[in-house]
Amino acid sequence: MTSATHAAHQRPRAGDAASEIPSSSPAPAGDGKAHPARPPALARGAEVSDADFRRFQSLIQSAAGIHLAPCKKALLAGRLSRRMKELGIGTLARYYRRVESDPAEMARMLDAISTNETHFFREPAHWELLSSQLLPAWKAQADAGLRPRRIRAWSAACSTGQEPYTLAMVLLSALQGWEVDILATDLSTRVLAQAREAVWPVSLAREIPEASRRRWMLRGTGGAEGTMKAGPEIRSVVRFAR
Asked: Which residue is catalytic, options 83, 186, 190, 219?
């Protein structure tokens, strides 16, 4: 990654202390999870009526396929209150009218109500199944002429990108010479922008096995020190969409 301060990302060298992140290292803010600050409460007296909740419930279900159970009334109010304050809107009924008539505001509203959590190599049992059973079977089928040497995968709810890039590391390591195409999608435009950048705090390196980290990740230097970036090989096989 290049900037005005000539920051860059480089391959970690063997024995480089920056490439060895102890598992006990505390993860700083921005660890790939969305931890929204507690938003201000709605203006005093601005109750969330059942009618307001049902309108948003129906709108969100239709636009994003997310079902908000009745017990999520307080969550809805809490997630939307900050944006409403920015716009000078004091009631959910008025904000609903704004969202309904403004596609850009609809996207911001969906960003606000989304919960994003991700890790590299999340759910280890899944990756073990892929590596020990599925990939060998696919390779055998290809060797027998029963399938093309091509993999197309979809990483849904990809958040800030750790899971699709994990998939890229696993597939490219095991299926050399194959065509790999990974589509990564998320409802949130905010996290998709972060995923496309493919830059994370270097503290997250502890989630990645050492061999994969050294092969596929770049270590930040200069103004980018303290970060790591996905290398060009894995970035080239992942594309993002909403």
From this structure: 186
186 classed as catalytic? yes
Cα separation of 56 and 77, whole Å? Answer: 10
pTM over 0.85: no
Nearest to 117 by CA among 35, 229, 195, 39: 35
The predicted-structure confidence for 177-233, as pLDDT tens digits, reads as follows 999 999 999 888 888 999 999 999 999 999 999 999 999 999 998 999 999 999 999
Binning the chain into helix, strand and coil, the percentages to the nearest 5 are 50, 15, 40
The position carrying tokens 């958040």 is 159
CA-CA distance, 122 to 158, in Å (whole number)?
12
Measured at the CA of 145, the angle between CA 143 and CA 146, to 5 degrees, comes to 110
| Cα–Cα distance, 159 to 192 (Å, whole number) | 7
The one catalytic residue among 79, 83, 190, 213: 79
